[in-house]
Each structure stands twice: as C-alpha cells, then as structure tokens.
Model the fold of this input.
Amino acid sequence: MAVTYKDYYETLGVPKTATQEEIKQAFRKLARIHHPDVAKNKAVGEAKFKEINEAYEVLGDPEKRGKYDELGPNWQEPQGAAPGGGRPQGGGRMPNDFEFGGTGYSDFFESFFGGSRDGYGSSGRGGHEFVQPGGDVEADIMVTLEEVLEGSKRKITLRRQGDDGEGRVNTYNVTIPAGVREGQRIRLAGQGSAGSGGADAGDLYLRVRLARHPDFNVKAHDLYYDLDLAPWEAVLGVSARIPTLDGATTLKVAAGTTAGRLLRLRGLGLPKEGGGRGDLYATARIQVPATVTAEERALWEKLSAGSSFKPRKDA
Done:
C-alpha cells in the first residue's frame, strides 16, 4: 500500500528554517481556528485539527523533527533515501500490509513515528504448517482532551493486504473511556495478525496519544494555562476570563501577583483513575507593550518618577 509523504511545514504554514517557538505559535493560531468546538464546519474543522496536530507532533519535537528533515520529500527515491533504505533512523516500523483509518494519524506518520505493527502467522518449511500464534498489531490513536473528559466512541478501520493482493477491511467501534491516559493502550483481542496451525490470532492495540491543545498543557491529571497579564493588572488585581474544558470561567487575580505564580482552579482538570478530577493551573505571565505612544510613554515616565518600588538593589 502506497504511503504519501506529508509536508508538515506546509501544513503549519512555516518555513523549514522556523524556530521551535515559531512552530509553536503557528500551531496554536491554526488550532484555535480549526478546533472542532469553534470551527464553523465541525467535520472539516476536526479533520484539519488532526492534520495540524500530527504536524506539530513531529515538528514540535526536536528529535522527531530531525528525523523528518533527514527523511525529506524524496524519501522514496534512492538518492533521497535516508540511511537504511529510505527510512529515518529509528523509524519505519510499519509494514505496508496494514492501513488504518479513523485514528487521527496518517499512514505516513504511522510508518515513521507510530507504533509497531509486528507479526504474521508463520508457516513451517517444506510446506508443513506449524502452530504459531499471530503477531500483535499496534497503532497510535489521537485523543482530544475533550474525549478524555467525556469519553467517546470512535469508528476505526483496518485494511489488510491479502495474499492475493486484494485488501480486506475490518471496521471496529472503539470505546475511548473517560480519563484515558497518554500512552495507555486500548486492546482489541484477536484482531491482530492471524495465527497458523490453528493458533490464536494476535491482538490489536491502539496506543493513546493526547492531541495538543491550543490553550492547555497536560501534566498527569492537571491542566496548565498561560495567563497573560498587563503590568497594572498584576499590580492592582483583575477578574480575568479564561477558557476551561467545561466552558469559560472567571478567575480572580489578586493584587500583587508576580510572574510565574500558579493560580489554581480546583476540579477543572482531567479525570483521575480513582474518581474526581485534577486541577487547572493558570500561570501568570506579565506582558509589556513592545511600543508605546508619546502619551503612554509620558505616563510610564511619571509612574517611574513617582513610584517607590525598587526591583533590584543598587550596585
């Protein structure tokens, strides 16, 4: 089965010379536009959101980005092949006998950055078949934070290349349980490679990868949000409107909040294994204007002259 090259730089709209920060900003900008919760066309937005996530999954990780750049768009041509026969070092673990649909990742991603798809039923030499269990098949499945919170049902297809060259497609209705974790594997027993000599088939495993969110970072069951504050808001305090997975809410920022301070909203994180939910932490970030008008500059100078605040000791 042919695997089509994906130009992740084009997907994010950045040049190959883009810095990691520029890649991050491009992802966040596009993700906010195409997130299924805000996209005008939910189906189109969901598909685009997954494409953007896949691109950021690779380009946002320096190690994966290096392998991807080594691979290059001419990966199928001998002169453009990476060492080892056209696959980047550490990649190429998927034989072309399997093709997934509905996981959120392309076959290109699975070929070089996804889970292993090992194992085939084996037959004995000299035409005598011996008993050999089928191998397991593993692929990645992209799961959004909203799915982690609520759980979901997903339709996954698996196309297998038959001995006669014809493809055989199986469809599975997969339950994504609420509270599923990064790296957790969802097992579909007996849906891997066929065994031989009457032995059982292997299993199909879907390994969970959490989709990157434009607003939140995930640490275990907690969510982290960057809360940008103007200098006067940090000094005087403010009621800031911030997003959560449950909808926007108002966070009271106390007067005198310093940069880096964590403001906790209890129970607005992801589900815990034993019940309940983690927390949402807003990280205060003090932002200053890059440019000011003459009138604004005069006000800043007046504040500077009249303030008793000393941020550092005199030399």
Observations:
- Helices lie at 8-12, 20-34, 42-59, 62-71, 107-113, 145-150, 231-236, 294-306.
- The first strand starts at residue 98 and ends at 101.
- Residues 42-59 form the longest helix (18 residues).
